[in-house]
Each structure stands twice: as structure tokens, then as C-alpha cells.
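Per-record layout

source: Archaeoglobus fulgidus
name: Signal peptidase I
length: 340
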Amino acid sequence: MKLSDLLMLILAVFLLASTAGFLLNRPVLLSYVTSDSMTPTLNRGDLFLINPLAEAKPDDIIVFNLNGHWTVHRVVAETDGGYITKGDHNIATDQQGSNSVVKRESVAGVVLVLLGNPIKIPEVGNYIQRLSGTTMNILLAVFMIVGGAMLLTGKEERRKKERKVYRLRYKTAYVAVSTISIAMLLLSVIATWGVVGFNYASTLAGGQKEGWYLPESEFDRQIEIKNNALFPLLYLFSSESERVELKDESKILSGGERAELSVHVRVPSETRIYYEEVKVHAYPLILPSDLIIRMYGLNPFLPLAAFAVELAAVLGVIYYATRAGEEEVIRLSKRRRLKL
């Protein structure tokens, strides 16, 4: 593989993977700093790169979801339950307040470093923030999907006059864009899945501080859920804890809508600190909600498989209805350099 082809492939993968981030406002491969908590290591507005496959360890800088907000802080310690984190400019760790440890599934990735310093581009994040919004996210997503498809599906042929011809047929483009669109939709849906957790203490001093409750008492906890997608989603909630009772097991939220999930907790008699988790799964309303709920009861991934099959069938019907055949839609030529 030529170096130019390798660079184009890397660029295509980067563009396509980043599409999920713009669709859901979730960091994928890159993000930017929105506060001064990591100064001077990372300053407000710095754009940085993320390795989503790396496993975080102490002293790494990670991007994680903290109470519904994406945060970039340093790992100062690792426990069985997750990570203890702290901003370089902050005095206390994030967990010295009411926040629980950062669960591993809440981490989007590790910030890439070179010679001990994060790889960053100053001020870019400030411009992105000014342009942020639903319309801009849609435009960026469309640009990335089309650009990635062109990079991945362009065909190179040699002509008699020693010219390189890049051709992109309608069929190839349609299949590529359709496949990428379905994959990005499923990826964006899976990205909304997660676990919402909270701590509380069973203590004889219940009521003296927030989060302290008397043994064998009961309380209600409100958990905020936000649909960061651009389309409506059906949210399904579950908990494996016998101490937790969910008043709502499902909610339908429009794009950008927020809602509160009411959780009823029965405090155990044993005095200690407890941690409860509520699993959150979300699905687009491509199928009837009752059918999605039934499939979810069998396996959380079953509705996604049904979505993929349904969308592929619809896109296939549209393609054959257009009768586009092998018509070329893009044709670019480049003369070969003459060797001296």
C-alpha cells in the first residue's frame, strides 16, 4: 500500500469515527477543553486527540462522563470500582464531593501525549463552541459521511496517456453511504447506553448531611436523563439491585430533551456506604415501542439487529426504484508526473 493510500485510509477512518461524536456530542477521537480545571497542562479551548482503545492508568489524562457532562481530568488513583480523578488546577479530587468513582465504562478514552505532553491545538475548541448547535452538527456529520465514503470507495485506473482516473459509481457510493449511515446510527445509539450511579450512607446520623439516611428508611432519588441525539429515542431502565425500585422503566425523549427518572431506594439496616446503579439503554423509534421493549427483554442488542435489517431493506428498495445502475457520478483525473 502506498503512503498516500495509507494516509487517505487513516483520514477516512478518522472522519467516519468522528461522525458519531458530532451526532451525539460525545468525544470520539478528539475533543476540546471547556474549563480551566486542567491548566496549564490543557487550557480552555485546546483541541486534543483521544485514544479510545487505551486502558487508563494512574497519571493518564482521561475523558469521562461526570454527572452527564464530558470531563477531561487526570487519573490520580485506581480502585476496584473505577478511577479517582482530579483536574491539575483543582485542589481536591472529583470524588471528594458527592461524585462517585469514575466507572470504566464511562471513560471515552485516554488523551494522546507526546514526550509527556498532550498533543493539542490551542484555541480551536473556542471556535467550535461558537459554531456548536444542532444545525452545525448535522452539516458536519453529512460532510464526514460523504467525505469518508469518497475516500474509501474511489477507484483508481490507469489510462493509456499515463493518467490516473478516480471514478466513483453511483452504486458504490450508495452502498457505501448507506452502510456507513446505518453503522453510524447504531454506533450513536450504543454510545447513549451507560450506567447511572449514586452513593448514599446508611447511618444512625441519618439526615444530618445530604446522602445520609437512617437504617431501614426509604427515600426517592431523581436522576436526570438527557437525549443528546438529533432524533427521538426510547429509553429503557433497569437495576439489578434489590434495594432499588424504578418508578418508570421507560421514557420517550425527543432530540435534546431532558427528563428525570425517579428511583425509590430502601436503605439497608447495615450501616455503611452503598452504591447503586441504574442501567440505561436507548433505541430510535424505528419500530413500535412495545416491540422494542419485548426484544429488549430477550437481548439488548436484538432491537439494533432489527433496525439494521429494516433500514437495509428500505434503502435497498429505494436504490432499485431509482434504477441508477452503474452511472458514474464523480470523475476526477490527474496527470502523472513526468520523470526527469
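summary: The CA atoms of residues 65 and 106 lie 5 Å apart. The longest strand covers residues 273-284.
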